[in-house]
Amino acid sequence: MKKLQFKKDINASAEKVYNTMLGIGNIETYEQWTAEFNPTSTYEGNWEKGTKIYFVGTDKNGKKGGLVSEIVDNIPFQFVSIRHYGILDGENEITEGAEVEKWAGLLENYSFHEHNGITTVTVESEVTEDYLDYFNTTWAKALNKLKEISEK
């Protein structure tokens, strides 16, 4: 497991960046920046602390898949922590086995720090070795897209 960190300065309030990133009030803003990971990326659930949330998309055959996760913490406009603990295969939750062990317990944290109208978003993500190159490339693209959407 490797811990990655990415930062992006965005010319918008922490409240606007937080709401845009999480799709609060309009899930489409979440889907727009996460399309960098998967063009069909979305979530099912909500961002309340302690709740289950699915991060999902569909594959080239139209089959739904993704991660089963829990919102560990959510301090609006400041911090969000997500713990991944399973995978979604179609409608089936899989929370144990070799495929899940790669992801189980990995954290993804988002921090929002506003200063003089500029918000610095920090993403800390734990990933497995086999996804290192993918996330190093894709997170940068996704944060650039988040910046573009948030600054509108």
Give the biggest beta sheet. Answer: 8 strands, antiparallel
Q: Helical content, roughly? A: 25-40%
Tell me the span between the first and last alpha carbons.
Answer: 36 Å
Q: Total number of helical segments?
A: 4
The CATH class, by name, is Alpha Beta
What does this structure look like?
The structure is a single chain. β4 and β5 form a beta hairpin. The radius of gyration is 15 Å and the shape is globular. α1 packs across α2, α1 crosses α4 and α2 packs across α4. The longest helix has 19 residues. The chain contains 4 helices and 8 strands, in the order βααβββββαββα. The model has no long low-confidence stretch (mean pLDDT 95). Strands 1, 2, 3, 4, 5, 6, 7 and 8 form an 8-stranded antiparallel sheet that branches. It has one domain: Alpha-D-Glucose-1,6-Bisphosphate, Chain A, domain 4 (2-Layer Sandwich), CATH 3.30.530.20. It is of the alpha+beta class.
